[in-house]
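ok so I'm stuck.
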Amino acid sequence: MIEAELSRSVARWCPGATGITGAAKLSGGANQESWRFDILHPNGNVGAILRRAAKDYRVASSRAAGFAAEARLMQLAYEAGVPSPRVLHVLTAEDDLGTGFIMQRVEGETIARKILRDDEFAAARLLMARQIGGILAGLHKLPQAELPELRSMTARKELDELERDYRSFNWPKPVFELALRWLRDHDPGPSDEVTLVHGDFRNGNLIIGADGVRAVLDWELAHLGDPMEDLGWICVNSWRFGEIDKPVGGFGSREEMFAGYEAAGRKVDAARVKFWEVMGTLRWGLMCGAMMKRFRAGPDHSMERAMIGRRASETEIDLLRLLAPRGS
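replied:
not stuck anymore, here's the structure
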């Protein structure tokens, strides 16, 4: 079914295309799905990815930018030289494929366990912290006048949302209480500069090759805010996958990332980065808690939700390491 729909779609917007082949569904969440396929073309086949809303998708998250905004951001990034897939087509009603877009496929790896351990990526791991600094600098330089409509987020608004979510769980956790108090006490106030923020820049949302970062994926949480948020989020311990002594995604130091960011003409505020790292750690802990709540409530008692839910305890340890390090 999807092969026929994709073939009809491609024929409308890709001159010379004769159809598609090899359509295969990739892993996806409850709200979104992705399909891999090749566009058949006399000048050479084109690898592509369809990203669209799941058929039973009803209500978008208040944080979600939306598929049209995602596509626009990815294309702006691609044109500015930020590693991002090239958007080939934004779906319309004529495509009969739902809501989403089609992008050119970028080959590489997204599984953190392989990126952080396989010999194939050994050389890339030495480069990636600095690369990421440069990529984030480029992303934060994208001109606001060209951006789609996005929500705005400040540290205070984020903290208010997190505390509201935490209280709704009725699940007291002293470490989370400590983190909330610390964040209130160390709120740096409004950022002097507001930029595009990716919102989920981390392992799993990066395509990696032997040469390092090839593409940034999943722009659905993009918003306007403090650019230091992205630098803090990539340092959250959960994205290091066991390589806890390498804060930037498990493959490098903060200093390397900061150097790459500043070499690209941007300024780092290390204190704000730490604030956002603490905020990000708490945010992930609450997201894990939400998964556990959904698992308990049912009716879908999926093992994946239970496994993610139990990781809330890991974030408590991470918060204590940040707020009360040994020897302090």
